Amino acid sequence: TLDPVSAANSAERGPRRGVVYAIAASFVRDGMVWCGTDDGLIWLTRDDGAHWENVTPRELAAWSKVGVIEPSHFDAETAYAAIDRHRLDDVDPHVLRTRDGGKSWTPIAAGIPSGSYVNVVREDPERAGLLYAGTETGVFVSFDAGDHWQSLQANLPNCSIRDIALRRGDVVLATHGRAFWVLDDAGPLRQLDAKSASADLWLFAPRAAVRLNPAPFQGTPDPKDEPLAANPPDGAVLDYVLKTAPATPLTIEILDARGAVVRRYASDDAEEAPDLQRLVTTPDWSPARRPPPASAGAHRFVWDLRYETPKALMSRRRREGGGLWAAPGTYTVRLTAGGRSVQQSLVVSRDPRIPATDEDLARQLELARKIQAERIRVAEAMRKADALRKQIARVSPSSGSGGPARDALSAFSRELEDAAGPAPDAGEFFDEHSVAPTNLRVIADGLARYERTVESADAAPTPDAEKALPQRRAEVEAGLARWGAFLNEKVPAVNGALRAAGLPALTLD
């Protein structure tokens, strides 16, 4: 409690003429304004300043700085005051609450430790009674209008918090001499209640995700040499809580409006680390993608708003980070753990800065999916070619030097490369102008560039992009026809030579 000061003692010390530090207009009633001074006074006007009423609690001594007054966003008679008394060598936290327009005040600082004197208190504009307190050592949160407080520190350094703002659903902190810090997405705090806190498995309703098509990498390939904080993650932020770790893998599935699975993650997925042998930048520019955690506690996972990459396109040469861009619309997030499932709706919206419409981006996805279907057809053929190469590598060492079987395998390998291109690990392979346009590798690389071009910007497909699809399909048909002819003619011929030499035949399984 605050030290009581009698009126007589106050008069003996002289009049209190403090500096006004806090001015706060009511969020719900016009003309109602609160003021607080650094000499421990609180004033209230209900008529735009024509008349003022001293509503200072009797216990509030001189030199008690009223640094911030926060009117409630929901009730005109409710307000909160942050009181700083460290100039009196009092470093205990002091927060006051009134629910009757200043007629009475209640101390509400239980849970904030001594030494964390309070600089600011803010109420969440979307949930009544959800309060944030910035103290000299960090930040605290209350879910019951200040009756109880708990730390919200997370990875925030131990530093003085001088102001707090709620902007676009984020908690923004201004620190003294350190930096601005942002707690992205206060949604879980707003939704947290007794039901969610006691549930074995809980998925918070995610806020709308904005589809941001990133620009190409334009940084330095050297290590980051300037201090900078992390930007908010791109994609849909998914928050969930597990009371205990499940015995089976946890899964997160994203479903479209028809119920089809767009993306699936599992806690036992392998971590996707960058290929250090092919990375052109230092690894800190390409962090590893980790699976969703399945340990007990609260977790946050981010869906990058992309479809699953088809297995046929996950080559050894270059593992792609994600599939096609998901179009704006409403999706379902399904979380499964320990044999139980919960789900929430998720809205994906387009970047508000672009002129394209949702229909434009739906057309873009439709074209990209058609291109991807052709890519898969070619990739399956190339998979068979890769399987043949592996068999040739196993057979060749045993074929003898200069024998008919070895000559037949050498000729077959050259014809295989001419029809399908080199192995996936060969890297950037050859001058396309010197290779037949029916070569599978040429077709596959052309389709990949075509797909990237269609998705390179958030816009409707251009007329040229739409007209190119029939031509690309014709190229695929020609390439696959040539590949089929190669298999029908060349494989039996080389197998005859292998059997004559007592060697195992090549198979197409």
Concise account of the structure shown:
The protein is an alpha+beta fold and 509 residues long. The chain has helices at residues 7-12, 187-191, 194-198, 358-395, 404-420, 440-454, 463-500; strands at 20-25, 33-37, 42-45, 53-54, 65-71, 79-84, 94-98, 106-107, 118-123, 131-135, 139-142, 150-151, 161-167, 170-175, 180-183, 201-203, 209-211, 236-242, 251-255, 261-266, 297-303, 329-337, 340-350.
Rg, nearest Å: 33 Å
The averaged pLDDT comes out at 90
Oligomeric composition of the shown chains: single chain
* Portion in beta strands: 15-25%
SS summary, helix count: 7
Task: Kindly report the spatial arrangement of strands forming the biggest sheet.
Answer: 17-23-22-19-20
What is the 3D form? elongated
Uncertain runs with pLDDT below 50, 5 residues or more? Answer: 1-12, 316-320
Helix content: 10-25%
Largest beta-sheet details: 5 strands, mixed
Structural class: alpha+beta
Blueprint (SSEs and pairs):
Blueprint: H1 7-12, E1 20-25, E2 33-37, E3 42-45, E4 53-54, E5 65-71, E6 79-84, E7 94-98, E8 106-107, E9 118-123, E10 131-135, E11 139-142, E12 150-151, E13 161-167, E14 170-175, E15 180-183, H2 187-191, H3 194-198, E16 201-203, E17 209-211, E18 236-242, E19 251-255, E20 261-266, E21 297-303, E22 329-337, E23 340-350, H4 358-395, H5 404-420, H6 440-454, H7 463-500
Parallel strand pairs: 17-23
Antiparallel strand pairs: 1-2, 2-3, 3-4, 5-6, 6-7, 7-8, 9-10, 10-11, 11-12, 13-14, 14-15, 16-18, 18-21, 19-20, 19-22, 22-23
